[in-house]
């Protein structure tokens, strides 16, 4: 009778240890991923620009970390330059040249649009968080209006149709729906909180979305 009891106590101890370990892992994992991403960016900047400086400068003058400092300086200079008309025009010419190169223009366009979403001053961003109620479907979907008027965007559609982006949970991807505005209900929720809510399947949220009752279509 003592052996099953001992095994039971041992298994219970293992479960407690495993639970403690995974609790710590869940707490530490976001920090580790963030640090790893930052370190990767720092390493990439140092490898590219530091390698260039290593070729241009004598070995006695080059110090580790100069590539990172150069990257920070270049980004700051570009930020200052974009405040001027001539520099903006030059960037537009460069962007136009990139958009003429097959494959590269696809990658560049996707990255440009993604960074544009993070920029509050950008013109192309998610305008409104909404929920979608489709006819005869007892579910609601959380999405973001990306085009307020299909007619103004020269996209075929009805006069009151909009484009809504539906991100997928725990994945990089989603769907874009073209549908009447009557199917939508605005949600009093910031873009960051709504995106966090959808991406994590509702597990992570700072505030519950406040929206009126969806009328039956």
Protein architecture, described:
By secondary structure, this protein is α+β, with helices and mostly antiparallel strands. It folds into three domains: 1-81, no CATH class; 86-125, no CATH class; 128-199, no CATH class. Helices cover 50% and strands 13% of the residues. The chain has five helices and five strands, in the order ααααβββββα. It has helices at residues 2-56, 66-81, 85-98, 104-117, 191-199; strands spanning 128-132, 141-147, 161-167, 174-180, 184-186. The chain has a five-stranded antiparallel beta sheet with strand order 4-3-2-1-5. Helix 1 packs across helix 2. It is flat. The model is unreliable at 207-217 (pLDDT under 50).
**Which segments are poorly predicted (pLDDT under 50) over 5 or more consecutive residues?**
207-217
Order of H and E elements? HHHHEEEEEH
Q: What's the main sheet like?
A: 5 strands, antiparallel
Q: What is the percent of helical residues? A: 40-55%
The 3D shape can be described as flat
Please indicate the count of domains: 3
Number of strands: 5
Q: What class would the helix/strand composition place it in?
A: alpha+beta
The side-by-side strand order for the widest beta sheet comes to 4-3-2-1-5
| Share of residues in strands | 5-15%
Please, how many helices? 5
Q: State the distance separating the first and last CA atoms.
A: 65 Å
Arithmetic mean pLDDT:
78
- Give me the Rg, rounded: 25 Å
Task: Describe the SSE topology.
Blueprint: H1 2-56, H2 66-81, H3 85-98, H4 104-117, E1 128-132, E2 141-147, E3 161-167, E4 174-180, E5 184-186, H5 191-199
Antiparallel strand pairs: 1-2, 1-5, 2-3, 3-4
């Amino acid at each position: 009778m003592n052996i099953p009891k001992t095994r039971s106590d041992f298994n219970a101890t293992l479960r407690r240890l495993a639970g403690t370990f995974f609790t710590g892992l869940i707490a530490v994992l976001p920090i580790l991923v963030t640090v790893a991403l930052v370190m990767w960016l720092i390493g990439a900047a140092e490898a590219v620009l530091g390698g260039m400086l290593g070729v241009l400068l004598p070995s006695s003058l080059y110090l580790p970390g100069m590539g990172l400092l150069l990257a920070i300086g270049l980004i700051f200079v570009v930020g200052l330059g974009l405040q001027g008309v001539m520099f903006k025009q030059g960037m537009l010419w460069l962007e136009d040249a990139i958009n003429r190169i097959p494959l590269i223009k696809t990658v560049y366009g996707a990255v440009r649009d993604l960074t544009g979403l993070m920029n509050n001053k950008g013109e192309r961003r998610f305008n409104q968080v909404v929920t979608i109620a489709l006819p005869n479907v007892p579910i609601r979907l959380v999405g973001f209006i990306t085009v307020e008027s299909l007619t103004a965007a020269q996209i075929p559609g009805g006069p009151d149709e909009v484009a809504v982006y539906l991100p997928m949970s725990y994945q990089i991807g989603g769907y874009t729906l073209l549908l009447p505005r009557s199917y939508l209900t605005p949600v009093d929720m910031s873009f960051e909180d709504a995106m966090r809510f959808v991406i994590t399947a509702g597990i992570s949220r700072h505030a519950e979305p406040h929206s009126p009752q969806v009328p039956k279509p």
